[in-house]
Amino acid sequence: MEGYHSPQLDVSVRLNTNESPEPPPAGWVAEVADAVRSVDWHRYPDRSAIDLRAAVGGLHGVGPEQVFVANGSNEVLQTLLLTYGGPGRTAAVWEPTYALHAHISRLTGTTVAVGERADDFSIDLDEVHRVVDASSPSVAFLCSPNNPTGMVDPESTVRATLEAVAAADGLLVADEAYGQFAPWSAVGLVGDGVPLVVTRTFSKTWSMAAARLGYLVGPAEVVENLHKVVLPYHLDAFKQLAGLTAVAHRAEMEARVARLVEERGRLVAGLAALPVDVWPSGANFVLFRPRTVPGRDTWQALVERSVLVRDCSSWPRLEGCLRVTIGTTQEDDLFLHALEEILT
Ligand SMILES: *Cc1c(COP(=O)(O)O)cnc(C)c1O
Predict the structure, then answer these.
(1) How far is the CA of 329 from the centre of ligand 1 (A)?
(2) Are 213 and 243 part of one and the same domain?
(3) Distances (CA, A) of 147 to 43, 56, 137, 180, 337
(4) pLDDT in tens, 48-94
(5) Ligand 1: does its nearest atom lie under 6 Å from the Cβ of 145?
(6) DSSP helix/strand/coil, 320
């Protein structure tokens, strides 16, 4: 197998991994630094992370029994697959989508059933039924907003996919790593007896990629099962207090999201004035395809101007495409200016 890599280069404008362009609020940094002094470092952390789970649940109007927290949402996905996947079981994905869904499935010995999205990268419900009927997946993944296309699945699509997966006795995982940038969330569909979990992360919207903290909201029964599988004390004391402190800064996070959504509009307008095809985005990144210069050459020319975007040009169905993260106004202007130079 090939490992998963997101190439990093030393450039001045880094718009390749969908991080927040801003560091966390200074108040959060100060509070976390203070709190670190009073951690009982000689003791194991609270194994159930109950305070953090209660605080995260409070963001979504659910109790801690419906929240599972882990070291990044990737560990949430891994724990889901260790619990509900494995040899003799199948996970369904619809490409192009987040590569880690299929990758972690394979790492856990889960067979992967691959469906295709429609030409415009939307979910085609006939294709959902074809894959589900053919493979009876134990786990199925939807990513909305979808990485790397940016597309948000409408509620009717998620409901119909949930119905199909439930009929096959499977669990639907809605990966909402970019959920706060989107106009609606599947969290409202979560309930006892409903085979749906929604995964979220502190990496993107919360400016906390370095902290490695993610979670899911789902039925209490699923959360209970995940706790049987995940390693004991998997969430260290520092991370628990960092997350707990972050939730207290929710308003600042929401203000950042609003700023980035506005900036996304400005970036998309800037792209629309250049010879590129642009896909609509409900996330903090935009997929585009240069028309006058091949994608790979455009990527290289951007690197030469110290701007790093994600090169998707060799990925299946994304021939010639690049993905740019929304940065600060200044970073986005540097990107747009460099791109204009290259393409016109
Ligand atoms: C970035 C990303 C994640 C991973 O988030 P971490 O919490 O940093 O592990 C999960 N899903 C999608 C779709 C992502 O783009």
Answers:
(1) 24
(2) yes
(3) 39, 23, 21, 14, 25
(4) 999 999 999 999 999 999 999 999 999 999 999 999 999 999 999 99
(5) no
(6) coil
